[in-house]
Amino acid sequence: MNGWILGIGSVYLCTLIAAALRARKSNHSDNDFLMAGSNLGALVGCLTVAATLFSTFTLMGMPDLFRNHGIGAWIFLGVSDCALAFVALWFGVNIRRRISADDFNGFSGWLGQKYRGRHATYVYLFGIFVFLIPYVAIQIKGVSLFLNSIIPSVMPSWAWSVAIVGVILAYSELGGLKAIIFADSIQGVVLFGATIIIASSCVSYFGGIGPMFDSIESTSPALLSIPGPSGLFTYQFLIASFLAIAMIPVTQPQMGTRLIIMRDSSSLARMAVLLALFSFVLVLATLPIGLYGAALYPTSATGEFIAQVLVYDQSPIVAAVVVVGLIAAAISTADSQLFALGSELRSGISKPQYRSLALVRSAIVVFALSALVVSLVSNTNIVLLARTSFAGTALLAPMILSAVFFPKQLHRLIPLLTGLGLIAFLASIFGLTGDAVWGLRMDLLIFIVVALGTAIILMFSNHYLPDERKII
To answer: Tell me, what CATH number does 189's domain have?
Structure first.
């Protein structure tokens, strides 16, 4: 297997280098470097959006979630991701009416213009930095632990983390967003293919889909019901998770930017349909992998289960493809988010003379090193950490959607309320407040308060609140 890993990995690395050099050659302006020429087609758009969305938790986290908590994970992941595709189309159509690709340089600067002040910019930057850096970190940590567990003789997990960050920085700095999109397209194909192959193998082990469910029902019937054996998938958890995941196109800059740089509205619509199909099939394919683990490795630790089902129970070439696919998944998600963070920092700077590409490149290095440090100390529960990241950025949605749909009724109280919501959510994460209030989960309650508060401010901003244009 190690020989196959070396061979396939070398091909993948050479492809990344070629993509970066090709992108660098075609980058004739800052806009090309930052926005990939604003000419994204439907298929490549689908693959790059999917690659930023489906990372290492696709093959490492999703099967383990099905194995431990049952089919309720389909509602958590499958239904929510299909809703995400619809929101991507809906938000993409409307944000493109407000922003042209030629004028767009980031959401942080655009929000500052819409709210006529720096407060909205600061809140947005705070929200994405606080919640996306840990998300990048868990991609790096997850795949480094996996590589260390299957090939421990090569180097320790921290060295794998350093190597992954080094590759990300190399081609991101060299080729910009175009290089990242090329890499995303490769990763999307590899991840999809590997998942389908392993899912088919798991179904074949049981002798078909029906026998698979019969086997699980005879040994672990709680896995076939909601809220599952440990009660994770309660109604509140599922509703809060649905909102958090569905709002990703609105709140996470690496997703929103890709919607804006689509070639045209027709390409955007086709991309959204392809993304829904991609998400539906990919998440569904992880279900038999998880149930296979529930049948054969019910008491194994997560790392042991993942190593067995993805590597040791597969043929050497399939196992090698999976290993390289996981590395590609970690890189594709991390590079997109790190690049987006650097671009948003540049966009948030008020004076145009300071918005240089050197700033973006330097910021990407700083954010990458920050993610590396966090990865070395972070928890390994990949899916639930990812969900926390989604829930945190979801609190930005009311502020962003207000700027899209109610540009004449915006008030600085909206960013203030959003900022307080972010702080309250962080307090709940660190245990400074309770997990629930009035019988509601804290994350769901905070989202409801921010959304309703924003709606009230929008309703009364023209009549009872002072005119901000006289204040600023």
So the answer is: 1.20.1730.10
Q: Contact, 286 vs 62, CB < 8 A?
A: yes
Q: Do 165 and 78 meet the contact criterion of CB atoms below 8 Å apart?
A: no
Domain range for 314 is 2-382
Residue 335 lies in a domain: yes
pLDDT of the chain, 472 residues: tens digit per residue = 678 878 888 888 888 788 778 877 877 777 777 777 778 899 999 988 888 888 777 887 889 999 999 998 888 888 899 999 999 999 999 999 888 766 778 899 999 999 988 899 999 999 999 888 888 888 888 788 788 877 777 788 888 888 888 888 887 777 788 888 888 888 888 888 888 999 999 999 999 999 999 999 999 999 999 898 989 899 898 898 899 899 999 999 989 999 999 988 999 999 999 999 999 999 999 999 999 999 999 998 887 888 899 888 988 888 888 888 888 877 877 888 888 888 898 888 877 656 677 778 888 888 888 888 888 876 555 555 667 888 889 999 999 999 999 988 899 999 999 999 999 999 988 888 877 888 888 989 999 999 999 999 998 876 555 544 443 3
The CA radius of gyration of the chain, in Å to the nearest whole number, is 22
Which distant-in-sequence residues (6+ apart) come within 8 Å of 189 by Cβ? 47
Q: How far apart are CA 467 and CA 472, in angstroms?
A: 9
For residue 178, CA distances in Å to 32, 89, 162, 321 come to 8, 22, 23, 24
In a domain, 419, yes or no: no
Number of folded domains that form the chain: 1
- Would 462 be classed as within a structural domain? no
Rounded CA-CA distance 193/276 in Å is 17
Angle subtended at Cα 186 by Cα 371 and Cα 29, rounded to the nearest 5 degrees: 70
Q: Residue 471 domain-assigned?
A: no
State if pTM tops 0.70. yes
- The residues, any chain, with a CB within 8 Å of residue 190's CB and separated by 6 or more, are 12, 321, 324, 325, 328
The CA angle 163-170-188, to the nearest 5 degrees, is 80
